[in-house]
Specification:
This protein has two domains: 144 residues, 3-Layer(aba) Sandwich (Rossmann fold); 111 residues, Rossmann fold (3-Layer(aba) Sandwich). The longest helix has 17 residues. By secondary structure, the protein is of the alpha/beta class. Helix 1 links the parallel strand 1 and strand 2. It has twelve helices and ten strands. It binds D-glutamic acid. The site of D-glutamic acid has 16 residues, from helix 3.
């Protein structure tokens, strides 16, 4: 059986596009609806109440677009909103935390794992808890990095300023002797070059997007939701703020022009 309905993805801005690109690569037959809540970016400094409210409005919008499955393309919402809203919608959902943690534990050589993420994600303790649940022996080190999302949204990845910011945030993690670092925010893979340069080749970088997309694919297969044989896939983009800024930053990082990006006002 084949289900041509789209997969929904959402984030505060362009970060979730690092998850979309894994969906395009691993599930090329699937259509998507992407929502970038760029009127409210950054999510990092916001309270759990605000984040849960945004997630609810976005999920209601995605459901109105007929999505069959939702990937939380945002670690902050995966940490804070997903456990609360999962029960409120009939559509199945997945977040980035558990797949990211499983991948980090799989690649870690010495069990010294760092997590870098937004203030809200770190404060929620979601990654720290999930890692310890999987293996209580792990040494876990976490670091909030509030300057990075605004830098990415402003299209300033690849600058000296970005490298200095990343280097400053990873210094304590490096000192702690981590062997693996989870990029616990979907904006950070756009700064991969900076992370590599600041950490050196011996530290493994884990972007949870790939493991999450594979887990989503497995679950969709189980639920009979895949679009087999699939295609032609259609990808639609919506934002709550400025569509031009979103398109421009996306073009800069992805090296390609997105199709039409439409602004929608959510309740
Ligand atoms: N990209 C999101 C995340 O993975 C949100 C970042 C933000 O807006 O602060 O957490």
């Amino acid at each position: 059986m084949s289900d041509p309905r789209p997969i929904g993805l959402f984030d505060s801005g362009v970060g979730g596009l690092t998850v979309s690109r894994q969906v395009f690569r691993l599930m090329p037959g699937e259509s998507t609806v992407y929502f970038g809540d760029n009127a409210h970016v950054p999510y990092g400094p916001r309270s759990p109440e605000e984040l849960i409210g945004f997630a609810g409005s976005i999920l209601t919008f995605l459901v109105s677009c007929g999505v069959k499955y939702v990937i939380f393309a945002c670690n902050t919402n995966s940490s804070i909103s997903l456990p609360v809203v999962r029960e409120l919608y009939a559509v199945p959902m997945i977040g980035l935390i558990e797949p990211g943690v499983r991948e980090a534990v799989r690649v870690s050589t010495g069990g010294r794992i760092g997590v870098i993420a937004t203030e809200a994600t770190i404060k929620s303790g979601a990654y720290q808890r999930a890692l310890k649940e999987l293996n209580p022996e792990l040494a876990v080190f976490s670091q909030a990095a509030p300057r990075l999302v605004p830098l990415v949204e402003a299209g300033r990845a690849g600058t000296r300023e970005a490298l200095e910011a990343v280097a400053g945030y990873v210094r304590p993690l490096k000192k702690a002797g981590i062997d693996t670092l989870i990029l616990g925010c979907t904006h950070y893979p756009f700064l991969e070059t900076e992370f590599r340069e600041a950490l050196g080749p011996e530290v493994k970088l884990v972007d949870p997007a790939e493991a999450t997309t594979m887990a989503a694919r497995d679950e969709m297969l189980r639920l009979g939701l895949l679009n087999n044989p699939g295609g032609p896939a259609r990808h639609r983009y919506f934002v709550s703020g400025d569509p031009r800024a979103f398109k421009e930053t996306a073009r800069l990082f992805l090296g390609e022009e997105l199709p039409e990006v439409r602004q929608v006002k959510l309740d």
